[in-house]
Amino acid sequence: MIKSKKLHGNNHPLKMSPLSPLFILFLILQLLSSSARIITRTQNAVVSPSCPLNFTTLKTLIHQADVKPSNNVGANCGYISEGLRLVLAEYLRSTNSFYPPLNSSESCWNSYESLVDSFIPNFNIRRSCNFSTSWISQGCMNISTRSEFEKLVPKLALNDAVSNCNQSLENSSPCASCLTSLTTLQASYLTGPAVGSISDCTNLPLIYAGGLINQFGPSDPGTARCLFSLDFTNDGSGNSWKKKVIISVITVGCFIGLCSLFGGYVVFSRFKKRREIKKRRLRRVGSGSVSKLPSSIGGSTTLIKFTIEELKQSTKNFHRDNLIGRGGYGNVYKGVLPNGNVIAIKRFKNCSAAGDAGFTHEVEVIASIRHVNLVELRGYCVATTKLEGHQRIIVCDLMENGSLHDHLYVDDVEKKLSWPMRQKIALGMARGLAYLHYGAQPAVIHRDIKASNILLDDNFEAKVCDFGLAKFNPEGFSHLSTRVAGTMGYVAPEYALYGQLTERSDVYSFGVVLLELLSGKKAILSVNDGQPSLVTDWAWALVRKGHALDVIEEGMPELGPSEVMEKYVMIAVLCSHPQLYARPTMDQVVKILETDLPVPSIPERPIPLVAELSEIERSASSSGSGNMSTSGGFQSFAMMNFDSTSTSMI
């Protein structure tokens, strides 16, 4: 009772002596609580370890290039996902693992988000782009290490990728060859289930190539642009860049100052000499009705030098009844030589004697190119007459079956080309162009591939004609501008818009002609509202919906196997892709058509310049979510729009 009174005798009922049992129990509970907190913190540290990914390289590249965000969320998400793939390639290069541990996903996203916040403030990656946290640590077919990837892919396919990708990918041709190898690899061997859109089966080969195949590594500007669609080329806004420019200008200026007197004297002397040679050539050509050029242009050719009288006689003085073709460069006539040989005569317009030297050189080059699928040049004529003025003419064999254009748009079912004929023509076109690009020395870019420039012999063997003729006239022929030669509907976008001419410009035109051959439709279609539409867009819309065989012309005689016809449609759509890097080379096209090689996956196309709102929204949605298999294979986000001061992602 006395103890009880002591305990309850004041306002602190739990006041205890240091040695009381209740005080000891209180200390034990406090210790247990502290231990629990320590254990919890330890467990949390185990569950969410620090991120092993190194974002420093990507951060440096972004800031050096002064990258600016787009107003399009889908474009930003695409750029962010490609940047993450570059970081994963660096991680693979150093660890032989594709992904960080799954329990580090949260911290890796947080680290990446802090980097993204430096150039896209307050942009929540996962919420804005619909990325799941686990995607950063998961991908294609549960492949997580280099050894697992290499066990799944045959050594032969890996060797092909190494031969095409272990080089500088700065230029378009090596890049396209590398991407074609990787896409073929993915389409053949990585066809299983995938998680997310970061390292799915389309993108895993790109990460592998950037991290392990390419000797320069994923952070190299050429590798980053080719494999990850990232352009880190500085536009010159940095102070260090300005200093380098100033130093270079001063150095070059001093060198020019020392050499200017001597260089000016040499240039003036050469200019004066060339002017005298040109005057003598003009006097020589204008001295008679027929040019005084040698009868044989080059020792390597067997060209015949025709006189203007011979050609007039063979065409009945270029009578309109013998006119068989018109073009921007001039007219084509049918002629019959005294020995009975039938020839085609191409007579160029608006010629002057001043260009004869260039003309003869180009004729020599063309005459030296021989292939079964190329029209062979037989002869030429350069002359000046009082009535017609200066004449430049080339002579070829006449193809009795005319051009491909003559056989495509016919209403009579019996006159339609059968599938075996179309297949033969397609392969002949591809072989002819492949020879121009890779067999001829120097290589020839045609620049005006169209149905009327594909001639057919007696056996319907395709022969490409007019190759190299665009150089005969300074303005080209059937031209879109003074810089771009070609025909509307067949010209590649990068050539028409920017004058960027490569072999893949011909590949685009080949794809358009192949679509015409398969569908019986013209390159430019007329739709119900009277607005023109491209056959490439029409075919792509069908392929995107899974209706590739609907491209095949209705009523075509002797249809082939459905899988073969579908393969040709897919090749045509891939070749006519608006993005340069997405197209294969012509030798790759020939290889795919001649063998059982699969057609590489076709990347998503950028939306048309004139598009409905629904198309724009669908495109932005697909870019953000990564549902299409386009973010890998080839160039994915090449249509991003950035500020004029920022680095272009094209």
Question: Your description of this structure?
Answer:
The protein is of the alpha+beta class and 650 residues long. It has 4 domains: 2-47; 56-228, no CATH class; 304-397, Phosphorylase Kinase, domain 1, CATH 3.30.200; 409-602, Transferase(Phosphotransferase), domain 1 (Orthogonal Bundle), CATH 1.10.510. It has 22 helices and 10 strands. It has helices at residues 2-7, 21-47, 56-65, 73-95, 105-116, 125-129, 146-152, 155-165, 172-189, 204-213, 221-228, 239-285, 308-314, 356-367, 405-408, 419-439, 493-498, 503-519, 535-544, 562-575, 586-594, 613-625; strands at residues 304-305, 323-327, 330-336, 342-348, 377-385, 389-397, 454-456, 462-464, 524-526, 532-534. The chain has a 6-stranded mixed sheet with strand order 1-5-6-4-3-2, with helices on both faces. A hairpin with a 2-residue loop joins strand 2 (323-327) and strand 3. The protein is elongated.
Please specify the SSE layout and strand pairing.
Layout: H1 2-7, H2 21-47, H3 56-65, H4 73-95, H5 105-116, H6 125-129, H7 146-152, H8 155-165, H9 172-189, H10 204-213, H11 221-228, H12 239-285, E1 304-305, H13 308-314, E2 323-327, E3 330-336, E4 342-348, H14 356-367, E5 377-385, E6 389-397, H15 405-408, H16 419-439, E7 454-456, E8 462-464, H17 493-498, H18 503-519, E9 524-526, E10 532-534, H19 535-544, H20 562-575, H21 586-594, H22 613-625
Parallel strand pairs: 1-5
Antiparallel strand pairs: 2-3, 3-4, 4-6, 5-6, 7-8, 9-10
